[in-house]
Amino acid sequence: MNDTGSLGDDVQLLTLDVNGTSCEVITSPRRTLVDVLRHNLRLTGTHVGCEHGICGACTVLVDGLPVRACLMFAAQAEGKQLTTVESLADPGTGELNDLQRAFTEHHGLQCGFCTPGFLMLAQGFLTERPEATKEEIREVVAANLCRCTGYQTIVEAIDACATARRAQRAAGTEETSCN
Amino acid sequence: MRSAKDDRLVGRAVARREDPRLLTGHGRFVDDVELPGMLHAQFVRSTVAHAALAEVDLTQVRQVPGVVAAFTAMDLDLGDITAQLGRPLTEFVPTAMPVLARDRVRYVGEPIAIVVAIDAYAAEDGLEAAKVTYETLAPVTCEDQALAPGAPLVHEEATHNTLVDVSLFATEGIDEIFDNAPCVVRVEARTGRQNALPLETRGAVAHWDGREEQLVLHTCTQVPHQVRTVASRCLRLDERAVRVIVPDMGGGFGLKCVVGREEIATAAAALRLRRPVKWIEDRKDALSASFLAREQHYTARAAFDVDGRILGLDADVVCDMGAYSCYPFTAGIEPLMASAEMSGVYKVPAYRVRGRAITTNKAPTAPYRGVSRPQYVMVVERLMERAARALGLDPVEIRRRNIITEFPYTGVNNITYDPGSYLESLNLCEQALKEAGWYGRQAAARAEGRHIGIGYSCFSERTGYGSTAFAARKMEVVPGFDLAEARMDTSGAVTVTSGTISHGQSHETTMAQIVADALHVDIAKVKLHQGDTDRITYGWGTFASRSITVGGSAVRLAAAKLGDKLRAIAAAEWGIPPEETELDRGRVRRRDDPDAVLTHEHLAETAYLKSHLLPKDIDPGLTATAAFDVFNDGTFSNATHGVVVELHEGTGQVEILAYVCVEDCGVAINPQVVEGQCRGGIAQGIAGALFEQVTYDGQGEPSATSFMDYKVPTAHEIPEVTIHHLETPCAFTETGAKGAGEGGTIGAPAAVLNAVNDALRATRVELDNTPITPETVHRALTSPALEQTP
Amino acid sequence: MKPAPFRYHRARDVEDTTALLAELGDDAKVIAGGQSLVAMMNFRLARPAHLVDIGCLRELDHLGVGAEGELRIGALTTHHTVEISPPHKLGAGFDIIRDAMAWIGHVPIRTRGTVGGSMAHGDSTAEWCLLAVLLDAEFVAQSLRGQRRIRAREFFFGYYTTALDADEILVEIVFPRPAPHAALTEFAERRGDFAIVSAAVDLDSDGRAVHGGRVALGGVAAMPVRVQEAEAVLAAGGTFRDCAKAAAAAVDPPGDANGSTQYRKHLIRTLVERACEEAMSR
């Protein structure tokens, strides 16, 4: 029995900035970011789907941009701002943000396993390209796999959210919520 | 008023109850279950397709840092998993599937040993230290090899490598019908081996609860009670001593409706170690070593008269089921479905079929959304198109002449079809494509030398199989009924249980809609419990589009019974007969005095806290249970799919330009959910038609171990789908609903294939095998091939 | 699909990196964006004993036009940075490079994957490798032994093999001259997949007539290749179709599950012609 609680290979202390909170993790360097988020930090909203960067279930934001958390070691994420699906809803009330609401209104999820990845993909993308057309959105949605929806309602949800955000900006309001 | 029809929730796109937790990352999937002291398991898997196991040496494995234990089949000494059909040995050969391979491996990826370590990383380190000595045997990797005289045998007991061989119907005089028919068309089709591919792979977390004297097994399964039965038998525990809990599940599509070996081995390891053990299948294993489906070979012919009326259908179906029969369905699942239902929506007067399941050295198969229907619908629809060409008829018109229009209709397959909208859906689908201008555009494109094709598929889909229908398949374990319990607490909140288990189908919403209507309560007061063998007395789970038809009916009956009890208690308080009361918005009301009401909370207080007030004939408490089963042939949903494709000469790419689905699943409990099922199903059908396939080389090595090789289509490949609804309510489900889970997948391959062939019309090449790759299309577009004659 | 153990070293700067590589030898592997490497490590197809993380080397994340009009790209520049870079940074005549980014995987791959990482990985279907061969880019490699410059034609050796030594890192890639009439196109069954065949052309043209050019193909050999036979057709004033035909005739792509030799040759004809037309439409 080697069940001594040893972590096997050399262990390091990492400081990760996750959803605006600084977290310290002691881990071996071979642990991927998604495993550290899920199992060390217990942020289980980010899912593991393929561990080779194709399905996108593990998509999170690193410095605001969507990345595959399975293709990054946690050690590489030190000094970067990490954002996961747990950050989207209002932390006080739990109220869904406009993107999340658009997903539910358009039935953009069924089993919900791929959903956090799509949400973070869309969140990162729309921040960078608020003026994205529906065709551009479709191209970006093609980055992740969903086995339930056939994608159409995911595209429609993101497009509706982007449209509502643009309308709101045009109306000169500060708030970024869509109905 | 709640009783007014427009006040009902059934039929409305009620917002999903599941969404808030899934959208915020607070769903709980099996990999999210974390228990103190939990260990992580992975499996040593066979690297060869067929071999005797000479030695499995785990000595080095146990030395690997972080590894806690490693077990072979000998170490764990578990019972086998054996699926049975009640058919003679000439028709079905049962084969045992050991939880871990004992003395023989039969496919690449077969589990040989379980390695348990402090984390998944160390477990994988452990796998690399295993020493397995194989005495390799010649692998059987395709139908031709399997059926060749003197072929190596995958299972000694299955001579000719055949697990199922049934010949059915054989209408008298069918040979003469074919001999004398003015038109006979043939189709030989092979369909690719697919993976149902839920985004969440399989997985389990098991631990021994000493206080409850119970093994608790969290696992993502569509059949929790079946897993409990198998676990209890393999581990030699009473069923009571096994509790299967299904958390949120990331899709299943059939792959999770059979009992897997790994979840049983994980449970065994937890039992042995008295520590929680988690196993999460990685994608490489999910692609190569879990359950696959759909590799079938059809040799079919159909006879027609000069007017295009079908005279007979004669088919031979061979399904390559891989190395083992799945539990509980057996290797019969695909050939029996195809054989029983192939005549489909057409008035076929004569029918003969031989259906076989063969065994090969490939990963075993499980039911996958649609089970054989995507394949045989494709074959029948190809026969229709081919006959139309041969007879110079319009392909829609030939369908019109043959489609069932009078119901109930008892087919040549002895199945009685309940009313549907077969012809209406076909007409509406054609009309939709015409009105959208596709026929005009096709003609214009053809004039320019472009290849645009239009294709249809018509089908019906048996849903709501009851025990009668499953028993007709001669299953030894006969699914069918479902149980529901509804109970109300003193706050007036309703808990309802169902033996079905949602994994994307939105049961928490749709079942709650049904209950809210039946009880006249606010939907927010209703909570569904599913997927826990301790909370749910018994259930058959979710497969075969049975959840809303059978499960939803049981839930409605239970809720109605609970409503009756509420009325009885109120009636007793008022001293009037229950018939003079009615349910109304969370209350019971006197019919003769609309202002006299008693709230659910008040009645529940009587039932629980002041039971001395109850009359003697009313038991304390507010619970009701109900069972539902279907005692006829089930209810048939139907649809027509219409597809427009363009084939690109430069690359051979098939581009889907338009997709129309006209579907009828009876009463849609939640139309948005139904549309979601259609679109998702269609995406999977397109995937099978154009993209996905696992092939095996001559050594039995699978081609697809990553998403680079297994080409799941993305938003770029899957088109928008226009859906039209028709509604022919089912007469014998409690809600009028028919199943809606599989139709999309069933209709898509045939429609896509027909559209591709329509686009290829000028080349005289016809393609009948799937998936149709760009290279196949390219070859068709560039060669003046005449190898297939219409 | 968990990687084998390794020791992690976070390099502070280029000097530190080269010192680490010199010390650790063949057992070390440089990780930049890791979009290919981590996937291979998760499959345990790659199992370096040491991983040298150069993610902190900000000095290698740059992009700009040099004095001679050449485009200089730091090895750590991500595909995404190139994709969104404004014209004044990327330079006139380098649209082919910006547009080619859309073919690399998907957005979440491009946000992490780097130019240097892609070049050093040396995949024969990689867009960056094809661009480098087409435009004969120059690679600047550094080690403790010093800096050296390698031309693209001498950089790619074979399947996933480059001229980089184990103790060297790529610091910069220089695309020597603008290519105003150039384009890259490719085909795969699914958007975002590795190309079955990719084609890139760089035409010498005054905007009306073409009097020469370069043609390069990916997915037809162990590394991207220039096709002299097709270039000769362009130089002789032949049509794009003839140029594409010549390209298909000149190579002998090995067939595999993603496409036979015959099919790849057909794709070459389609894609070379398509690339020529796109290049001229600029």
Structure description:
Chain B: It comes from Streptomyces colonosanans. Chain B: One of its GO terms (molecular function) is iron ion binding. Chain B: Its cofactor is Mo-molybdopterin cytosine dinucleotide. Chain B: Residues 24-138 form the Aldehyde oxidase/xanthine dehydrogenase a/b hammerhead domain. Chain B: Keywords: Molybdenum, Oxidoreductase. Chain A: Residues 12-88 form the 2Fe-2S ferredoxin-type domain. The complex is a heterotrimer of chains A (179), B (790) and C (282). In chain A, strands 2-1-5-3-4 form a 5-stranded mixed beta sheet, sandwiched between helices. With 179 residues, chain A is α+β, with helices and mostly antiparallel strands. Chain A has 2 domains: 12-87, Ubiquitin-like (UB roll) (Roll), CATH 3.10.20; 98-170, DNA polymerase, domain 1. Mean pLDDT of chain A is 92; it is low at 1-8. The termini of chain A are far apart. Chain A is 32% helix and 14% strand. Chain A has helices at 33-40, 98-105, 115-128, 134-141, 152-170; strands at residues 12-18, 21-27, 59-62, 65-68, 81-83. With 790 residues, chain B is α+β, with helices and mostly antiparallel strands. Chain B has 3 domains: 5-26 and 481-628, Aldehyde oxidase/xanthine dehydrogenase, molybdopterin binding domain (Aldehyde Oxidoreductase, domain 4); 33-137 and 199-251 and 256-288, Aldehyde Oxidoreductase, domain 3; 366-466 and 634-782, Aldehyde Oxidoreductase, domain 4, CATH 3.30.365. Chain B has 21 helices and 30 strands. A 7-stranded mixed beta sheet of chain B has the order 3-7-1-14-11-12-13, sandwiched between helices. A 5-stranded mixed beta sheet of chain B has the order 9-17-16-15-10, sandwiched between helices. Chain B has a 4-stranded mixed beta sheet with strand order 20-28-29-30, with helices on both faces. In chain B, helix 11 runs parallel beside helix 20, helix 16 runs parallel beside helix 17 (547-574) and helix 19 packs across helix 20. Chain C has 3 domains: 7-53, Uridine Diphospho-n-acetylenolpyruvylglucosamine Reductase, domain 2 (2-Layer Sandwich), CATH 3.30.43; 60-175, Uridine Diphospho-n-acetylenolpyruvylglucosamine Reductase, domain 3 (2-Layer Sandwich), CATH 3.30.465; 182-280, Enolase-like, domain 1, CATH 3.30.390.50. Chain C has helices spanning 14-24, 37-42, 79-83, 87-90, 95-100, 107-110, 115-121, 127-135, 152-155, 228-235, 240-250, 261-280, and strands spanning 7-10, 28-31, 50-53, 63-65, 71-74, 138-143, 146-151, 156-158, 161-162, 169-175, 182-187, 197-205, 210-218, 225-226. In chain C, strands 4-5-10-6-7 form a 5-stranded antiparallel beta sheet. In chain C, helix 11 (240-250) runs antiparallel to helix 12 (261-280). Chain C is globular. The model of chain C has no long low-confidence stretch (mean pLDDT 96). Chains in contact: A-B, A-C, B-C. Chains A and B meet through helix 1, helix 2, helix 3, helix 4 and helix 5 of A and helix 1, strand 3, helix 4 and helix 19 of B.
